[in-house]
Automatic annotation (TrEMBL):
It comes from Geomicrobium sediminis. Its EC number is 2.1.1.80. Residues 1-259 form the CheR-type methyltransferase domain. This is Chemotaxis protein methyltransferase CheR. The keyword Lyase does not apply.
Length: 262
């Protein structure tokens, strides 16, 4: 089975540019195997040659599956409140204009959550750049329409403030959408932007190997301005953050040490 999987990994990398070897093997094998078994395939070989190669819709569903898209507004709300309390006042006090990167943004809930955190700063120049490897989820993010399930961490007055409600759908109001832009980006292969004041990348690093995680963290730090912040998920504590040029600033919040160079 492992040899069959290894050949499959090479083929996926060649065809789609997605390197599955940089994801934790047991988790990714379980994820991919359950996907192809659902469609009646018996091996990775058959799945690739008789499924992905000939069925465009299956390709899209497969890429959506392996890129792990799970998100909601204010997921782990207490951590977002920590970000609001500890980080936002400093960012606003020290910068007239802010560049924020929502990395691996999935369907956009995290990016729009970031924008709502600044809802009491209407005149601040805030640019939120949200990226993901999966073009299908980016399309949904741009539409900015969600079900009530995605809003379950929000308080009633926040739902009213941030969304227009039409039946079972909730669409982010224009004033929170206009400063958020979405684009495709592969954390493992593409160039990273510079001059970012805050990066959020939550509940994604846990799926990568230690080697890949190390590479991503180093590149995040190089993207941050001196004193910039990195906000990760609640199962993604960075041990020995000083080796990346980071210092712990709060729960799952890290600050780039001033004058640190990668």
């Amino acid at each position: 089975m492992h040899e069959d999987y290894n050949v499959f990994v090479k083929r996926v990398h060649h065809k789609y540019g997605i390197d599955l070897s940089l994801y934790k093997q047991k988790q990714m094998m379980r994820r991919t195997r359950s996907f192809y078994e659902r469609y009646g395939f018996l091996s990775y070989e058959d799945f690739f040659m008789l499924g992905l190669t000939v069925d465009g819709e299956m390709e899209k569903r497969f890429i959506d599956r392996i890129t792990i898209n799970v998100s909601e507004f204010y997921r782990n709300r207490e951590r977002w409140m920590d970000l609001r309390r500890l980080v936002l006042p400093e960012l606003v006090a020290q910068n007239e204009a802010l560049t924020i990167w929502s990395a691996a943004c999935s369907t956009g809930e995290e990016a729009y959550t970031l924008r709502t955190l600044f809802s009491d700063q209407p005149k601040r120049d805030i640019k939120i750049i949200a990226t993901d490897i999966d073009e299908l989820v980016l399309l949904k993010a741009k539409r900015a329409t969600y079900s009530s399930k995605s809003l379950r961490e929000l308080l009633p007055h926040e739902v009213t403030e941030y969304f227009n409600n039409e039946g079972d759908n909730y669409t982010v109001k224009d004033r929170y959408r206009k400063s958020v832009t979405f684009s495709k980006h592969d954390l493992l292969n593409d160039r990273y932007m510079k001059g970012v004041h805050l990066i959020t990348c939550r509940n994604v690093l846990i799926y990568f190997t230690e080697e890949a995680k190390d590479r991503i963290l180093k590149r995040f730090v190089s993207s941050l301005t001196d004193g910039g912040f990195l906000f990760v998920g609640s199962t993604e504590q960075i041990f020995s953050p000083e080796r990346y040029g980071l210092e712990t600033y709060g729960s799952f919040i890290y600050r780039k040490t001033p004058l640190h160079e990668q």
